[in-house]
Design brief:
The chain is built from four helices and eight strands. By secondary structure, it is of the alpha+beta class. A hairpin with a 2-residue loop joins strand 6 (119-129) and strand 7 (132-139).
Length: 173
């Protein structure tokens, strides 16, 4: 009889731990982010500096547990023609998945638009956190999406490779 009780306790404990882990991964660490006071920025071709673009209908989430959990959605009146002439484009990046409950950011649909050429990716801001760049994708109808992506220094630093002299020193914790 005591074996059944131990088995039931283990089973119930496993279910509670599994449900807790699921909740923490999908919901627990995320928090909503208000619209940035400084605005949505893209890096200009001419100066390499970030420049604010107009936006509305901003929605974003982030988590303190990782610098690459940021996701944002917005709308901008700027056309792709204007954006490609003014701002630095980024090739070969695809959006990271967002939690299913953050329904404005559908990474599959965004990736489909990027592959079809109806959306383009731009450098939003370099090093928003050490080794992490903000990437902004904008569609031909003005819908915009932003997420964080590891840059070369970040990829080296987080996989344990020696970063070398071309990377800035890691900030002290």
């Amino acid at each position: 009889m005591s074996g059944k009780i131990v088995g039931i306790v283990i089973l119930i404990s496993s279910l509670i731990v599994g449900a807790s882990l699921y909740y923490l991964q999908v919901y627990g660490f995320y928090h909503k982010v208000s619209a940035p006071v400084e605005g949505i920025s893209l890096t200009t071709i001419a100066s390499g500096e970030s420049e604010v673009i107009p936006f509305e209908n901003f929605q974003a989430i982030d988590a303190d547990s990782s610098p690459i959990r940021y996701r944002a959605c917005f709308v901008t009146p700027y056309s792709l023609a204007l954006l490609t002439e003014t701002f630095q484009m980024v090739e070969g990046v695809m959006p990271r998945n967002a939690p299913g409950w953050f329904d404005c950011f559908d990474s599959g649909a965004i990736a489909g638009e990027l592959e079809a050429g109806t959306a383009l990716t731009f450098m939003g801001q370099k090093n928003v956190a050490y080794g992490v760049d903000r990437i902004v994708a904008i569609t031909n109808d003005g819908r915009g999406y932003a997420w964080h992506e590891l840059n070369d220094c970040g990829a080296k630093a987080y996989d344990g490779t020696v970063t070398g002299e071309e990377c800035p020193p890691k900030p002290a914790r």
